[in-house]
């Protein structure tokens, strides 16, 4: 068994060094994701966070789907955990193509990693191209307002912006799958935001948590909270394709998605009374 693993590892390194691997037009590197990124995330979601996933039958086995989730945690681990858990546990082993903020794609190394794992900038043209190509796309409309909120505001959804994700779904007739994630709020409980330092470093916020910056690099180790992920029933949009530019339709649909996620969060929190339980 070990001989096979060593041979597989050497073959992988040989392909990487020689450039004999494929990426798609967005930079998605399936081999690197399968061999390196997902195994690391698997240790986190399965062993550290003890993640339970419900409602996978609501995620389509093929064709496009727009997965819309709540965002939290000071560091956006929830998006990565969601993508890895979905791929591992969905019968069709689907990849979630995440849409990220501009800042992510301006950061050295992080930008490259995001592209390699299938991510792209959160803009409608890219989202629509992915959806028209039959991909499963993940978006977190709260953005930095969600991951940068104080612990006292945990599990209270922030504003969903202008509903650009709804317009992308409507133009492509793609079903919207709301997903609620419980557990991310406790990994780095944000007690304060040092705004002057954030402005100096050109960051959306500078967090103070029970462990950061007091413990230095050790403060980046996430607390082992218990995670629950619930995929909700899909919301069809094919009958609303002609309403993609109607602000009332877009707002109402965005509000429906937001309310679905918020109510599901309440239900999951009742199911998980202890944030650090088994």
UniProtKB/TrEMBL annotation:
Domain Phospholipid/glycerol acyltransferase: 65-184
Superkingdom of the source species: Bacteria
PANTHER family: MONOACYLGLYCEROL_DIACYLGLYCEROL O-ACYLTRANSFERASE, TRANSMEMBRANE PROTEIN 68
Protein name: Phospholipid/glycerol acyltransferase domain-containing protein
Taxonomic source organism: Micromonospora echinofusca
């Amino acid at each position: 068994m070990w001989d096979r693993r060593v041979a597989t590892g050497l073959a992988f390194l040989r392909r990487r060094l020689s450039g004999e691997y494929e990426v798609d037009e967005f930079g998605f590197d399936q081999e690197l994701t399968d061999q390196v990124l997902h195994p690391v995330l698997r240790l986190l979601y399965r062993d550290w966070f003890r993640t339970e996933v419900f409602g996978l039958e609501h995620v389509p086995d093929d064709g496009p789907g727009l997965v819309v989730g709540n965002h939290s945690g000071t560091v956006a681990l929830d998006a990565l955990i969601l993508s890895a858990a979905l791929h591992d546990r969905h019968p069709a082993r689907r990849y979630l193509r995440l849409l990220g903020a501009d800042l992510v794609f301006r950061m050295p190394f992080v930008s490259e990693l995001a592209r390699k794992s299938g991510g792209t900038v959160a803009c409608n043209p890219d989202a629509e191209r992915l959806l028209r190509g039959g991909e499963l796309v993940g978006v977190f409309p709260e953005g930095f307002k969600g991951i940068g909120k104080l612990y006292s505001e945990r599990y209270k959804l922030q504003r969903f912006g202008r509903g650009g994700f709804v317009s992308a779904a409507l133009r492509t007739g793609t079903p919207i799958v709301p997903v609620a994630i419980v557990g991310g709020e406790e990994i780095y409980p944000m007690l304060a935001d040092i705004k002057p330092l954030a402005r100096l470093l050109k960051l959306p916020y500078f967090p103070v948590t029970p462990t950061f910056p007091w413990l230095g690099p050790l403060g980046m180790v996430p607390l082992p909270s218990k995670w629950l992920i619930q995929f909700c029933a899909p919301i069809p949009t094919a009958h609303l394709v002609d309403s993609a530019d109607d602000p009332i339709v877009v707002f109402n649909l965005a509000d429906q998605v937001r309310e679905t996620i918020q109510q599901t969060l309440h239900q999951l929190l009742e199911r998980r009374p202890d944030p650090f339980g088994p």
